[in-house]
Amino acid sequence: MDRFFADKIQGDLAFIDSEEEIKHISRTLRMQEGDVVEIFDGKGKEYIARLDQIDKKSIQLKVMEEVKINRELKTFITVYQGIPKAQKMELIV
Fold first, then answer.
1. How far apart are CA 50 and CA 19, in angstroms?
2. Which of 8, 2, 93 is nearest to 45 (CA)?
3. What whole-number distance in Å separates Cα of residue 93 and Cα of residue 72?
4. Are 16 and 25 in contact, with CB atoms under 8 Å apart?
5. Is this model's pTM higher than 0.85 or not?
6. CA of 8: how far to CAs of 54, 64, 77, 87, in Å?
7. Is the Cα torsion angle 32, 36, 37, 39 positive or negative in sign?
8. Quick one: pLDDT at residue 40?
9. Do 55 and 27 form a contact (C-beta atoms < 8 A)?
10. Using CA atoms, how far apart are residues 79 and 49, in angstroms rounded to an integer?
11. Pairing of strands 36-40, 3-5
12. What distance in Å separates the CA atoms of residue 71 and residue 33, rounded to the nearest whole number?
C-alpha cells in the first residue's frame, strides 16, 4: 500500500497540497478517486484513507481508520567518537 504525508487532517478529511506529491500520485502512480492509501501526519499518527477528489492544486482524502503503528526501535543505541589526531575531528564533525 502506498504511503503519503498529509498536509492537513481535519476530522475524517485529509488534504495533500504539495505539487510534487499531487503529480506523483495522479500522473506517476496513476491513482484514481476511490483508491486506498496510507497517510501520516508527521506527529506519530497514521491512517488508512480513500482518495475522494484529485485536482491540480489539492487531493482530498476520506479517512477510514486510524492505524496504531510504532516504528521506533525498542533498543537504544549510543555512539561515541574517540578523539583523533590532527584536524580529522573537524572532518568527522
1. 19
2. 8
3. 26
4. yes
5. no
6. 15, 15, 33, 47
7. positive
8. 92
9. no
10. 39
11. parallel
12. 29
1 and 38 in contact (C-beta within 8 Å)? Answer: yes
Contact of 48 with 67, CB cutoff 8 Å = yes
In this structure, how many other beta carbons lie within 10 angstroms of the beta carbon of residue 49? 25
In angstroms, the CA 6 to CA 42 distance is 8
Which residues, in sequence order, are bridge partners of residue 4? 39
Name the residue type at position 90.
E
Q: How many CB atoms lie within 10 A of CB 48?
A: 15
Per-residue pLDDT reduced to its tens digit, 49-59: 999 999 989 99
What is the amino acid identity at position 83? I
